[in-house]
Design a protein that fits this description.
The complex is a heterodimer.
Chain A lengths: L6 E5 L2 E9 L3 H10 L4 E8 L17 E10 H14 L8 E8 L1 E4 L3 H10 L5 E5 L3
Antiparallel strand pairs in A: 1-6, 1-7, 2-4, 2-5, 3-4
Helix pairs in contact in A: 1-2
Chain B lengths: L8 E9 L2 H13 L5 E9 L3 H4 L5 E12 H14 L9 E6 L16
Antiparallel strand pairs in B: 1-3, 1-4, 2-3
The chains are: A alpha+beta, B alpha+beta.
């Protein structure tokens, strides 16, 4: 391993929202998620079957090609983001997609120093667990 | 049923800038002995992606690495990926870890090298 300064900030109380939607819908849905606090998302293409095959001729309006959206959010935000995605994706309409939330044990990413300082100083209940390690 | 649940496992997922996985994967094999993993590709949308930073756009290509490891090795592997894939750098990606209820053995058996 290299001799870089080592400091891992582990995020806990994190949830993963996964949504499978019709191809072409993902950008609009991610935008809705970002509007209520999600930082970002990863999107990949997939192929699914389900209600489309049961709708007969009407099934043609359901796109077989899917986009799978994955969004990591804090558990506090999960409900809000989930509802926003639900509304933006019209999940109450058959064939529009499916989504779920799974708990994440821990997550890690780059966190700017000023944000670390802010949480460390102002909020003792912060979800960040700072674990400095030696080089 | 023949799946094995003898030891608890964790699944570690890393979302990396595309291309970074090509250096990391051989090191997982050579240095940690992990010879089984999955890599997929996706587009990443974020508020502070490098492209958006330059005013070009906000979508970047990502590689999604998924590794299944025994619970007792999870911390070691998590740290290895975190530091060696430069996740601790700006625009370095994101990684997370899940517990599992059950899993099959995600390990390739040792095979003697052919001469």
């Amino acid at each position: 391993m290299s001799n870089k300064k080592r400091e891992m900030v582990v995020l806990t109380d994190v949830s993963l929202i996964t949504a499978i939607v019709q191809r072409g819908k993902a950008d609009e849905i991610v935008k809705a998620a970002q509007e209520v606090g999600a930082q970002g998302a990863s999107i990949h293409y997939s192929h699914g079957r389900g209600v489309r095959e049961r709708l007969g001729v009407l099934g043609l309006v359901v796109e077989a090609e899917k986009e799978t959206i994955q969004i990591i959010v804090s558990s506090d935000q999960a409900n809000r983001v989930f509802e926003s995605i639900y509304r933006a994706g019209d999940f109450d309409t058959p064939g529009m997609g499916i989504m779920w939330v799974t708990p994440v044990e821990k997550a890690a990413t780059f966190i700017p120093e000023d944000i670390l300082e802010k949480f460390g100083r102002e909020d003792r209940r912060n979800p960040f667990d700072v674990r400095p390690t030696d080089a | 049923m023949s799946y094995h649940t003898t030891r608890p496992h964790k699944i570690i997922t890393a979302i990396l800038p595309k291309g970074r996985e090509s250096d990391l994967l051989p090191r997982l094999v050579d240095e940690l002995g992990i010879n089984s993993f999955n890599v997929g590709f996706a587009r990443g949308v974020g508020r502070i992606t490098p492209l958006r930073h330059r005013g070009v756009g906000e979508t970047t290509e990502k590689a999604i690495l998924t590794v299944l490891v025994e619970e007792e090795r999870a911390q070691e592997v998590f740290e290895f990926i975190f530091y060696e894939a430069d996740i601790n750098q700006p625009h370095g990606g994101l990684m997370y870890q899940h517990p599992l209820l059950a899993n099959t053995v995600f390990k390739v058996p040792d095979i003697e090298d052919e001469l």
